UniProtKB/TrEMBL annotation:
It comes from the Bacteria. InterPro entries: HDAC_classIV, HDACs, His_deacetylse_dom, His_deacetylse_dom_sf, Ureohydrolase_dom_sf. PANTHER family: HISTONE DEACETYLASE 12, HISTONE DEACETYLASE HDAC1-RELATED. This is Histone deacetylase. It comes from Chryseosolibacter histidini.
Amino acid sequence: MLKVAWTESYVLPLPPNHRFPMSKYEILPQQLLHEGTITAANLFHPGQVSKELILLTHEETYWNKLRDLALTPKEIRRTGFPLNAEVVNREITIMQGTVECTHFALQHGIAMNIAGGTHHAFTDRGEGFCLLNDIAIAANYLLSEKLAKKILVVDLDVHQGNGTAQIFRNEPRVFTFSMHGANNYPLVKENSDLDIGLADFTDDTFYLRTLDTNLKNLLDTVQPDFIFYQSGVDILATDTLGRLSISREGCKQRDRLVLELAHRNKIPLVASMGGGYSADFRDIIEAHANTYRLAQQIFF
């Protein structure tokens, strides 16, 4: 059974005209339930991640400041969020959701988090709507519990996974692969194990061919026994922040390629949602929903 992490408290008291589309975290599960892609039995509500797991990835000084709501105004601006207890509680719930997903993926082949993909969080700071890094926390959990030996991070958000790259730059058991817009945020990139920077207006054909070639090569050379997939849909041509020219069908085929390769090679996979900022909210929901539809079709 496909298990999906979801907490119903994702709608936060954000300022008017805030750019982060929080409502997609409420609308997406409703859409998936309405159309029958999932039922209530597929959903689970995670708890909150422990301090011990957070400190496998993040510096204690940073975590204490975040927990105590003691970040400086500059640090708060960098995250893009107001700093309050609701935001921090949301973040640590997302972290636990991805950790719990790892167990379901080991059981069933795949599990998914309706949130997460917080790849701009570094060991010592947050950035870009990311306070803590769920992929890194869950990966370090797997390694510490000896549930995985070699992890591949497939980050296909339009923005480079700079925080994840920094966290794992000296960790040979985690291979970080980021395919992103070369001219997009962050202006200064970190070094992933493999970075592919795409030109503005990259189309479906080039994108899918490039991904297919590189991902197959990585499975051969890295030989991972676990995959984390950051499945942001801000690669869409309709995305206000994306600068690529990927169609909704192209985004769906991207997901199919990743999920089918994991399934065919029997590699457990956890998918986190990532970004999506299209002006038409339906583009965001449909593109994200396709990832879940494909997971059901391919794995179950």
